[in-house]
Amino acid sequence: MTIIKIKEMLETLLRYEDSDITHTFCSENHTFSLSYSKKLKNFQVKNIEKGHIEHFPDEETTSLALYRIIGIVGKEVTK
Question: Closest Cα partner for 46 from 25, 29, 27?
């Protein structure tokens, strides 16, 4: 997934912030969810297996983190 596609996805979450939208990214060993909290005013990325949640304040920070996560997940799957 490109950084542009990730940013488009984040823009959609902001545009529909009154709705409860969650994107899920799956690989062989990892599952992550992405959502936006209007109440907290941040993006949330959750590692579903571990239950670990990271919060990001803006689109730029979130897009870079997701791009890194997707790249790491993709490399682990191809090994």
Answer: 25
